[in-house]
Each structure stands twice: as C-alpha cells, then as structure tokens.
Amino acid sequence: NAIATSLLGGRVQPLRIMGYHPQLSTTLWPGIWNPEWDRRFEDLYGYNPSKAKALLEQAGYPNGFEFTVYLYTLPGLPEQVDIGQALALDWQAIGLKPKLVEIDFPRVRELFRTKTIHGAIFPMRHGINSLETIRILNKAKDAVVYAYEHPFIEQRMEELGRVLVPEERARLLREIGDHKFTEFADMPLFWLFAEAAVNPKYIAQYVFPGVISRYFTPLDYNK
C-alpha cells in the first residue's frame, strides 16, 4: 500500500483515507481528528512516482508484479470503470502490471464477504462516518466488506461497545484512525463525491445522508 500511495496518494486528503472527516467527525466526536494526519500526509501518502519505484525495488520487485483490478459499475457510480482504466496507466508508469477485469459486482461482493479475495484491488463506496466505516470495512467478524483487519482495531471496537462517554469514544476512534493511517490500511487512489440536485421550486429542504449505497434520502425529512 505504501507503494501505491506514494504513486497516487497526493491527490486526496487524510479524511478520504479512513472515513474520517475533520468537520463531521469532530462534531460527532470532539477530539477525534489528529492534526498529525495533515502534517504527515505528504510524507506518507504524497504523489511521488520515483519513491514508488524505489519502494518496489526495496520490496524485491524491481520489475514490478501483476495484480488484478476488478472493475464494475454501481448504482450512481457509472464512472468506476473509466477511473480504474485511468489509474492503471499510473501503475504501468512505474513498472507494475495491472490486469483489468470487468466483472459484475455481485461476484466481487461474494469474494470479499467470504474473505476469498486476495492480491486484488476493487473500488468501494461508503460514507465518511468514521464509526460506520470501521464497522463495515475493518471488523474481523460481523462486518460487510472485510477490507482490513487487525487485533488493535478489534480491541478498541470491543471497548467502544462498552463505553458511552463521548470523550472516551472519540479517544478510541482516534486511536483506530492513528493505526489505520500509519499502517496504510487504505489505498487513497481516487475519491468521487456523490452529488444531488433538487428543484427549489418544489423542494424547500433536501436532507442528503451522504452515502448512496442504500438510499438517496430519508424522504420524511424533506420539505
């Protein structure tokens, strides 16, 4: 992951790595945002093809290696295939050999839900709620995607299940964020925000939940 982020990471921000947001997360959990994520971001994740090549050689892959990139469309995200094809050009530029496989999403979903997807890259969609992101992506049991797991996260998730004090919950979530940030738990290659348009002639207030995986809005809150 360090190799991948050195190649492409400078195009995103820390909030897009871990599902954390400097305003939204801090409003929910004051103290959750670690300023070090901003200060260290360029060094750990900045765009640097030369460093990416050096890391490949250091890891024992001077001639690169082949890996699978699963490409598929999702409702509201038809751009995913085009984005994957564009990213492949950057990987090829440092000597990597991405194998692009266009596939129906349910087949990839079966692989990650059964933990049988290995050595492959696939795009995901989720909101930027730190607790929800960890529950979906980073729990070893009873999760949805099983993208990255570690005993450090499991321990703190267990504590979160017993703690109600907001300050303590923020501390635990920040510690998980520190771990994910330094361990390259995510590959920040590209982030596309969802957009919603409404006609003010008919809609006075539109409440958008921030994620398009299940629904576009709780209709009861619209005016």
Global shape:
globular
**Which structural class do the helices and strands define?**
mainly alpha
- How far is the first residue's CA from the last residue's CA? 45 Å
Catalogue the unreliable spans.
1-11
Largest sheet: 3 strands, parallel
Instruction: Give helix % range.
Output: 40-55%
Mean pLDDT value: 85
What oligomeric arrangement do these chains adopt? Answer: single chain
- Strand order across the biggest sheet? 2-1-3
Strand content: 5-15%
Total strands: 3
Task: Indicate the radius of gyration in whole angstroms.
Answer: 19 Å
User: What is the H-and-E element order?
Assistant: HHHHHEHEHEHHH
Q: Helical region count?
A: 10
Description:
The protein starts with a helix and ends in a 41-residue tail after the last helix. It has helices at 2-8, 15-18, 24-28, 35-45, 49-58, 80-93, 105-113, 130-137, 151-160, 166-182, and strands spanning 66-71, 97-102, 120-121. α6 (80-93) links the parallel β1 (66-71) and β2. The model is unreliable at 1-11 (pLDDT under 50). The longest helix is centred in the C-terminal third of the chain and has 17 residues, at 166-182. It has ten helices and three strands; from the N terminus they run αααααβαβαβααα. The chain is globular, with a radius of gyration of 19 Å. α1 runs antiparallel to α5 and α9 runs antiparallel to α10. The chain has a three-stranded parallel sheet with strand order 2-1-3, with helices on one face. With 223 residues, the chain is mainly alpha-helical.
